[in-house]
Design a protein that fits this description.
This protein is of the alpha+beta class. The chain folds into two domains: about 5-100, Nucleic acid-binding proteins (OB fold (Dihydrolipoamide Acetyltransferase, E2P), Beta Barrel), CATH 2.40.50; about 125-170 and about 205-450, BirA Bifunctional Protein, domain 2, CATH 3.30.930. It has 13 helices and 16 strands. A hairpin with a 3-residue loop joins strand 14 and strand 15 (about 385-390). Helix 4 (about 130-150) crosses helix 13 (about 435-440). The longest helix is centred in the first third of the chain and has 23 residues, at about 130-150. It starts with 6 loop residues before the first helix and ends in a 20-residue tail after the last helix. The structure holds 4-amino-1,4-dioxobutan-2-aminium adenosine-5'-monophosphate (4AD) and magnesium ion. 4-amino-1,4-dioxobutan-2-aminium adenosine-5'-monophosphate (4AD) binds near residues 247, 387 and 430.
Length: about 450
């Protein structure tokens, strides 16, 4: 028996040997004497060509070989006579695993719109574009683990179900087994969560940070990499209700150490993609975004700008623009402002720090000015915010004061506060939005197209 080889390996193999390939038919062409099948198995963007001597094979079987059908082929790997490939397989045996009715198969040869492909998310990974995106997504996930492992960070598994609101933004999905048609109530009419599965109110996590901090304050340097959930009604090309986030958290890091890590990590990941995903990137550069590869090199080759929120507001005020959302100190920056700073003013990725306390989460380290906190946002071209993080408030009284001011239920966070009593240290961390990274690295324009099965308001198919 010959061992099955993947198309990626076959295309790099020496001609002359007998081979076995399995995959899906991308296209079929030819005449009554010879047929050419382009076979793809997902291992690479390239197809391998199968040459079929038509009269040798059963006519009915050959008719079943249509676009989308899955087949098995054995034959000799030979140097290709045609253009566009180095080797091809001269078929000796062909078997059809699954037929595919050409009338009904939604993936036709013509290009489909991204919107249409979203409706067939069960089949879209078979297109060149989604194959490329998903392979790059895999490579980035692998590179993230490699980066941290090589630097002594531990992968900490933080919970998906939590009883606290890590961002204090109230955008959480409830987790409950209560009978929604007959919810138990307390005497005052409020829901009695003591009867719920966990005996308390729980939700899907918006961030692994708070538990990540517990890890950093014992293991030193940790990272999380998992799904996070936000029930915000944001129908934009940059927001998902379920997205993946990478959250490193480091003891003894101040805000500058945090920025160094953010810049080094993102550059490493982009370099990794350039070095390891070149075929897929070249395809995307050709078909999706002509400036893609140049932009990726630009990031790895240039320093990120480091400045403060306050400086950024001054720049935006002087920009002489009519903004959709007005700029003034104390308001959060919107995508239009972030993109102006990155794409037009600095023309480089920008790291902004020292945001007004009022627009940032409770856990950020308070500056001595009493007005700003040591928050950090990393802004990228085309994307806007790709990373959000901060140095953390390590002083018990200040942290508790902020929690009280914001009316956050202290009983949900007693364990978090305790770390500031028992050997508290300066520490920092950030969250890198995985899909925003993939958007940037692939040149795709909608976040729904860089995750296999997107969850957005009103949509949870597949
Ligand atoms: O800025 P965010 O909300 O920060 C946190 O959650 C912190 N707890 C992270 C930390 O310090 N450990 O989110 C971090 C990043 C954003 O910069 C963005 O890239 C991504 O997560 N993000 C989203 N990505 C897709 N869809 C959404 N709805 C997102 N919300 C945030
Ligand atoms: Mg943020």
């Amino acid at each position: 028996m010959i061992k099955r080889e993947k198309v990626k390996e076959l295309l790099l193999s020496e001609p002359g040997q007998e081979v076995l390939a399995k995959g899906w038919v991308r296209t079929k062409r030819g005449n009554k004497n010879v047929m050419f099948i382009a076979l793809n198995d997902g291992s690479t963007i390239s197809n391998i060509q199968i040459v079929v001597d038509v009269p040798v094979f059963d006519e009915d079987m050959l008719k079943e070989i249509t676009t989308g059908a899955s087949i098995r082929v054995t034959g000799k790997l030979v140097k290709s006579q045609g253009q566009g490939q180095s080797v091809e397989i001269v078929a000796r045996e062909l078997e059809v695993y699954g037929t595919c009715d050409p009338e009904k198969y939604p993936l036709q040869k013509k290009g489909h719109s991204m919107e249409f492909l979203r409706e067939i998310a069960h089949l879209r990974p078979r297109t060149n574009t989604f194959g490329a995106v998903l392979r790059i997504r895999h490579a980035m996930a692998f590179a993230i683990h490699k980066y941290f492992n090589d630097r002594g960070f531990y992968y900490l598994h933080t919970p998906i179900v939590t009883g606290s609101d890590a961002e204090g933004a109230g955008e959480m999905f409830r987790v409950t087994t209560l009978d929604l048609d007959n919810v138990p109530k307390k005497a005052d009419g409020s829901i009695d969560y003591s009867e719920d599965f966990f005996g308390k109110e729980t939700n899907l996590t918006v961030s692994g940070q708070l538990e990540g901090e517990l890890g950093a304050l014992s293991l030193g340097e940790i990272y999380t990499f998992g799904p996070t959930f936000r029930a915000e009604n944001s129908n934009t090309p940059r927001h998902l209700a379920e997205f993946w986030m990478i959250e490193p958290e480091m003891a003894f890091y101040d805000i500058n150490d945090n920025m160094d890590l953010a810049e080094d990590l993102t550059k490493f990941l982009i370099r990794y993609a350039l070095d390891n995903c070149s075929e897929d990137l070249e395809f995307l550069n050709r078909m999706i975004d002509k400036g893609l590869i140049e932009r990726l090199h630009f990031i790895t080759d240039n320093d990120f700008v480091r400045t403060t929120y306050t400086e950024a507001v001054k720049i935006l005020e002087k920009a002489g623009r009519k903004w959709e959302f007005p700029v003034s100190w104390g308001n959060d920056l919107k995508a239009e402002h972030e993109r102006y700073l990155v794409e037009e003013h600095f023309k480089r990725p920008v790291m902004l720090t020292d945001y007004p306390m009022g627009i940032k989460a409770f856990y950020m380290k308070q500056n001595d000015d009493g007005k700003t906190v040591r928050g950090l946002d990393v802004l990228f071209p085309r994307i806007g915010e790709i990373i959000g993080g901060s140095q953390r408030e390590e002083i018990y009284e200040k942290l508790e004061g902020r929690i009280k001011e914001l009316g956050i239920p202290e009983e949900d966070l007693w364990w978090y506060l305790e770390t500031r009593k028992f050997g508290s240290v300066p520490h920092s961390g950030f969250g890198l939005g995985f899909e925003r990274l993939i958007l940037f690295v692939t040149g795709m324009s909608n976040i729904r197209d860089v995750i296999p099965f997107p969850r957005t308001p009103g949509s949870a198919e597949f």
